[in-house]
Fold this sequence. Notes:
4 copies of one chain form a homotetramer.
Chain A lengths: L3 E6 L4 H11 L4 E7 L8 H4 L24 E4 L5 H9 L5 E4 L9 H8 L13 E2 L2 H8 L4 E3 L3 H15 L8 E7 L14 H4 L4 E2 L7 H13 L5 E7 L6 E7 L7 H12 L5 E3 L15 E8 L4 E8 L7 H11 L16
Parallel strand pairs in A: 1-2, 1-3, 3-4, 4-6, 5-6, 7-9, 11-12
Antiparallel strand pairs in A: 7-10, 8-9, 10-13, 12-13
Amino acid sequence: xxxxxxxxxxxxxxxxxxxxxxxxxxxxxxxxxxxxxxxxxxxxxxxxxxxxxxxxxxxxxxxxxxxxxxxxxxxxxxxxxxxxxxxxxxxxxxxxxxxxxxxxxxxxxxxxxxxxxxxxxxxxxxxxxxxxxxxxxxxxxxxxxxxxxxxxxxxxxxxxxxxxxxxxxxxxxxxxxxxxxxxxxxxxxxxxxxxxxxxxxxxxxxxxxxxxxxxxxxxxxxxxxxxxxxxxxxxxxxxxxxxxxxxxxxxxxxxxxxxxxxxxxxxxxxxxxxxxxxxxxxxxxxxxxxxxxxxxxxxxxxxxxxxxxxxxxxxxxxxxxxxxxxxxxxxxxxxxxxxxxxxxx
Amino acid sequence: xxxxxxxxxxxxxxxxxxxxxxxxxxxxxxxxxxxxxxxxxxxxxxxxxxxxxxxxxxxxxxxxxxxxxxxxxxxxxxxxxxxxxxxxxxxxxxxxxxxxxxxxxxxxxxxxxxxxxxxxxxxxxxxxxxxxxxxxxxxxxxxxxxxxxxxxxxxxxxxxxxxxxxxxxxxxxxxxxxxxxxxxxxxxxxxxxxxxxxxxxxxxxxxxxxxxxxxxxxxxxxxxxxxxxxxxxxxxxxxxxxxxxxxxxxxxxxxxxxxxxxxxxxxxxxxxxxxxxxxxxxxxxxxxxxxxxxxxxxxxxxxxxxxxxxxxxxxxxxxxxxxxxxxxxxxxxxxxxxxxxxxxx
Amino acid sequence: xxxxxxxxxxxxxxxxxxxxxxxxxxxxxxxxxxxxxxxxxxxxxxxxxxxxxxxxxxxxxxxxxxxxxxxxxxxxxxxxxxxxxxxxxxxxxxxxxxxxxxxxxxxxxxxxxxxxxxxxxxxxxxxxxxxxxxxxxxxxxxxxxxxxxxxxxxxxxxxxxxxxxxxxxxxxxxxxxxxxxxxxxxxxxxxxxxxxxxxxxxxxxxxxxxxxxxxxxxxxxxxxxxxxxxxxxxxxxxxxxxxxxxxxxxxxxxxxxxxxxxxxxxxxxxxxxxxxxxxxxxxxxxxxxxxxxxxxxxxxxxxxxxxxxxxxxxxxxxxxxxxxxxxxxxxxxxxxxxxxxxxxx
Amino acid sequence: xxxxxxxxxxxxxxxxxxxxxxxxxxxxxxxxxxxxxxxxxxxxxxxxxxxxxxxxxxxxxxxxxxxxxxxxxxxxxxxxxxxxxxxxxxxxxxxxxxxxxxxxxxxxxxxxxxxxxxxxxxxxxxxxxxxxxxxxxxxxxxxxxxxxxxxxxxxxxxxxxxxxxxxxxxxxxxxxxxxxxxxxxxxxxxxxxxxxxxxxxxxxxxxxxxxxxxxxxxxxxxxxxxxxxxxxxxxxxxxxxxxxxxxxxxxxxxxxxxxxxxxxxxxxxxxxxxxxxxxxxxxxxxxxxxxxxxxxxxxxxxxxxxxxxxxxxxxxxxxxxxxxxxxxxxxxxxxxxxxxxxxxx
Lengths: 345, 345, 345, 345
């Protein structure tokens, strides 16, 4: 069989290069094109020398798009840019997996409230499918526009969905305390990501107004049918890759550690990329891989349920999950090209 | 006036060397002796070469203790060891500032529950004063036995006490999510603190059963008179120094950001070492100093109060606070010897 | 065709787990057994949770060795242990790739001088082949005992061999200044690898007496036929993986940057895993991969040649190179199972 | 006695804030003004919150300079900017300590060759004194314009000067392999200092053409009277503070470790800030302090002398040394305000 032809729009940022890393070695696809407006005409390995000898990919401009007939296009663009692409090209000619936040929320209003900018392709919001396979695999199979989940939401939703779905916790009590490595902030150097600023440092940011808050609430609500409100606080870890999310919620049923463990094992036993642990996870145990590791514990004393989950933000939190979605939509085995064993140490 | 004579028992661990760093340059005290059973007879600078040329201190054994007549002794010992010293020497001949957990809790029973070992000097529990100057300065002045606070509790109590004391929050709703640098685990190499294990890593540990839980609850209860229950979750940051603590609690009164800010400014405006900020703090902004930086925000949407506080765990979380306590008990200006400006970058 | 059956002796250290990471996904081999005396009977994923769901491997004791009939055995043992295994089992029944230093030097005398311990299997020194494919591929093909190179020597020899072999540099002038990540020191926690000791730190160690000195000299001499003396200074980088080696040597012929570049391109153009760069390399550009990146420059002013080379010490410096050797000795395509693209960022 | 009045021009970069850290607690000086063109009118603690409560300093513009009558001005400016200030203000009204490279070299020609820009205040080159107290204390005492040494040169010159001065080494054989933390690159965020780029990374840069090369040669020549040529290679360490410099040189006399040790002890025994060690130094052993730690060893086998020296690049490599120079020129005890004990861990 011929390989599927895919394209990557925005191939030189962190999610873009992670897509290349995965797809170059993927047995069922070929990268037909990869764009970069800044570096069009250069070899990818001239921009990112770690790719030397691994791919001959030459970056092109989005202006050359008409030359290609891809089966699927990954959009690794900043939010606001993806919607322009979708508006222009529609979803008839090829499948789109968008890694930005543009098609994750329910409505243009919600988008505008949290992103502080108008949504110019709201007609496609309805059609878009949230690309979290563990929740929406059946819909992803037939999707034409997949909104690849945010990194924080992936770690939080996978940890909370089983509890909420089965009615174990109060949907108004949820606190999400997340800690992310710096690649989550993108490849562009900023004063706040200057090495001496972050080395040996740690801080919270975007308190009470981070854009992943409505994404988490919206998806949990859609999935469970229960109105859900979360307080989400991100923190910046002085490492390159990895997210750890700790959640706190109040049980509304009689509960025990055994019950919760059974619940999570049942929810994820058939999943390729969710590992339910019997001890607290570490971000390095998923580095470079597509795994999400989850641990839960019930505190009898304070009557709270704690979950701790970890992902590699560039893998299960971005490019890895995007490839997982691609595999699903192409009818491939879901783990194809995603069997990287975590790089630890 | 003659300088005060002080001794340090256990001078080669991290809190011990941090005490030496502060006291060598303290204008009102002289270090009469510093003990180490492992290294007795050696110069401190032979064990820790960064002290070369800064002090001639020669380590001695606790067996030589009778040679000295100190005004005050710092115990920088593991828990369990401090109580033996106190039991043997009592508190009549000199003041004791204990940096272990042995005299922080209310009762031998509570100690034995959380520390899993009997308390053999429980007669002194009553007499001991919890050495958090911002709450107990008046009692510290006349204390003979000061239980220097734990690092996590310092960061959490300073952030929660004003809210609880003034009745702003539900004392049963408190969640404390803390993140600490690795020096908090002590100077002894362990498999879990091997550099390649922690580099680029992050994890939660001691879920629901960390010993600082009852310390935080006990002190908040004593201070406010209100029964308080907290869920405390520590995490291990891949840095050397620094704690950041995020707390979540439910208001029980009408509240606003202005009200909370005023509350914290009022609580700490006369304090030398608590800085109330108008933006989220960073651990590097207090590195090497005795400051605790605190930021608060109220989330109208989820009706939660968030506090974020940072300290250097070896300073305000251990040795710096111990010197602050010493200054108080000696009647010195409280900031004497503690004016180190944070080392940033 | 049936897969080759391989065994790993010492599977829980850093080179052992890296071998597992590579071999689990290797299409032409099956791991028949993996030993650990400490953890025999446990699943590898219980000892190293990042392997969960990626392999069902159960660790066994070396005492169970007689149950197996492997085609090839990797020895990921400390020096001194490998020679015992080789002495006991010989090289008739299966091929051995030894990752320790036991079979890299020329003679028992040289070994005893630098390793300070007698060599008890010196009869095998003659037979052993130094497993640096770029120099000894033809001999590796028929080897029964392969001495897998040390991490520092790999980075130094690949950078110096072309210059020496073609007679461009004075073989008595060579200075090698190397910097290695901490995994090079092994998986065992030691006082010197305690996280707070190394975090933010950097130092030189083993000045003038590191065991890789005679290895570098011996191999360069054997390869070039020229008596060679090097001054080798290792330093400890506060990172987990990666070696960067800077060498300095005096040209003995008229030379230019163009001449050197041509020399290196010619030497390595057919190599899968050596990339000759036109700018200085970074260790992160080879992280998790089997590449060695090399850059050279001639300083007209001081008349010195500088080379800078980088490898991942656990890959091209240990397990990756071992798998490359295995591929050669099995007659497989040399890059089989070694196409991991560097994990950057 | 009245305190000396000093000013800092360029107070918000890394050397500027380090000067403030030292001078706020200096007992003999008062900071009369501190400039920042970007942040004029703001409190320093608004720009750098770690200064909160430690100083009320309000930044002003250089345009306000005429309001002040300082005794001494520190120029913490980029090269090229300092010469403009010196040209405009001369050295009659106040002493100048320039932390840029503008007045370190011998001639305008040399400057233009290495800095690629004309020198517009070359009339002052003659008058300027190189501010390395260990070599030039007697001249610094009466200087009006002090060229504060570069960070790399400080670490290299202190390690090489005793050997060269006493004729122990071949002045044409010197190799300097240096490794610096990232604060050496300044406070401005650049693509190459983006946290994810440098985290876990290490590389060499500016091979054969770094500007500190002629500075090292010039000063060694002036000091020893011997024409000296060095090959200097800098590398970028993934830490915030600290330089380690390894040098290699060929002895030209009979030599032994004892002879070299005696030489260094003799050279530095009266120095406050140079510590001659009997084992290899670590950068963390000088963090936050003004010390330079030096270790030497002679390799009998290859007949080379190795030195390893460490400094905190912002202290002995910049601001600490500048304050040391200020103390000398003011006739104060040289260590005044510089007794910070290294912050380790």
